[in-house]
Specification:
Aspartate Aminotransferase, domain 1, Aspartate Aminotransferase, domain 2, 4-stranded mixed sheet, binds pyridoxal-5'-phosphate
């Protein structure tokens, strides 16, 4: 492993012009007590930094690259699209093609619209839900992250979890007045809140498998309750599948759990590595959106042709028979072996399909309160030991790791050996 001399210099330069040297906080690697590596290129499972170190990547651009970095056909389709012009601000056929493909995977998204980020998708979905119901209250869960819109930065996960109260400065109290936060996996609290206030709730938004407090699956009882209480009280159930969409199954967590939400957001995978996300849902709900209805939402680059081309090719590859089954099988084998390695070491593994988090914790976390009790100092040591062995795991205790189709059994063997050595150190 080369010393990260060029990355260190690049970071100093970046600090002169970019706040914190990064364009998204977690990339600064503060939570793990080091400084960022600067990437030169990526291929398959590997990222190469500007000091010519090669790392096996488990962050995979935060879950985007289920096909591995720089999938040759996805990149080719995107390059071809660029050569035809990279944005028009006028409709293209590709938008309808990708929308149709997304709906095939997510039949609950009877109508959907493309935006440029997961943040935009959740923000817009909530506006639509409020416009449709004529109600104001939004229910979210502690430790779930739905992007950085003002009213969603309350007890949020992801990098917000490293801020003292998991909320952000710069958000006036009034902006979060209608955001109600409940504990994840607490069916009783959910039922009680809806019994008392259900008629005021516009929408309940949930990560159907939480990934931004580290991976925390819902109990069957809890996830079913989200559908039941919203239906009973005429509130819109929004599944935020920005991470889980196209990952936990072709049709995301909703397919896996057999639960049909009223609205869904997808992101990351859907744009094949380009800025793209979508929100959608029941046709009657989506009808309130401009130009048909009174709820405004728009975007200069929305439905961008390069992102559409990459998305279409990505989803085409994901729709190959057996893709998710094979990925799941490989991930399960990896996790079964990992369980044995961590046994009796105050480390717990949560995994669902190809997403997993190792929690340095004395118990298996079920909610944000639990995950926040994890030993972040131990986690940081683990991260750095893994980095020395050429493995880039997601750089925070409050994030997931992602297995792609390029993580071959041989690579995973090496990773398991490295995890064992790292935690024994
Ligand atoms: N929703 C979830 C579940 C996410 O994990 C994220 C980002 O990680 C977002 C929304 C926001 O997406 P973006 O970062 O593209 O704005």
């Amino acid at each position: 492993m080369n010393e990260r001399i060029k990355s260190a210099a690049a970071f100093q330069q970046a600090l002169q012009v970019i706040p914190g040297g990064v364009n998204s906080p977690v990339r600064a690697l503060k939570a793990v007590g080091t400084t960022p590596l600067f990437v030169k290129e990526a291929q398959g499972t590997y990222i190469t930094d500007i000091d010519d170190n090669r790392f096996i990547d488990f962050c995979m651009s935060w879950g985007v690259f289920i096909l591995g970095h720089n999938n040759p056909t996805v990149s080719q389709k995107a390059a071809e699209a660029v050569m035809r012009g990279s944005s028009y601000g006028i409709p293209t056929l590709a938008e309808t093609t990708l929308a149709t493909k997304v709906r095939e995977a997510f039949p609950s998204m009877e109508r959907l619209r493309f935006v440029n980020s997961g943040t935009e998708a959740t923000m817009s979905a909530i506006r639509v839900a409020r416009g449709f119901t004529g109600r104001d209250v939004l229910v979210k869960f502690e430790g779930c992250y739905h992007g950085h819109a003002d009213h969603l930065l309350v007890s949020a996960g992801s990098a917000v979890a490293n801020i003292s109260n998991a909320s952000s400065a710069g958000v006036p109290d009034g902006f979060t007045k209608y955001t109600v936060v409940l504990p994840y996996n607490d069916t009783e609290a959910l039922e009680q809140y809806f019994a008392e206030n259900g008629d005021k709730v516009a929408a309940l938004i949930i990560e159907p498998v939480a990934c931004n407090m580290g991976v925390v699956p819902p109990t069957r009882e809890f996830i079913e309750a989200t559908r039941r209480v919203t239906e009973q009280h005429g509130a819109i159930l929004i599944f935020d599948e920005v991470i889980t969409g196209f990952r936990l199954a072709f049709g995301g967590a909703q397919q896996r759990f057999g639960i049909k939400p009223d609205m869904t957001t997808v992101g990351k995978i859907v744009g094949g590595g380009f800025p793209c996300a979508a929100f959608g849902g029941r046709a009657d709900i989506m009808k309130v959106l401009a130009p048909d209805g009174p709820v405004y939402q728009a975007g200069t680059l929305s439905g961008n042709p390069v992102a559409m081309a990459a998305g279409i090719e990505t989803i085409t590859q994901l729709s190959a028979p057996g893709f998710h089954e094979e990925l799941e099988k490989r991930s399960n084998e990896f996790c079964t072996r990992l369980e044995k390695i961590i046994e009796g070491k105050d480390i717990y593994l949560n995994h669902v399909g190809s997403m997993f988090t190792l929690f340095f914790n004395t118990k298996n976390p079920q909610n944000f309160k639990d995950t926040k009790q994890s030993d972040q100092v131990r986690f940081a040591r683990y991260f750095n030991r893994m980095l020395e062995r050429g493995i880039y795991v997601s750089p925070s205790q409050f994030e997931g790791n992602f297995i792609s189709q390029c993580h071959t059994p041989e690579i995973l063997d090496y990773v398991l050996k490295s995890i064992e050595e790292s935690i024994n150190e």
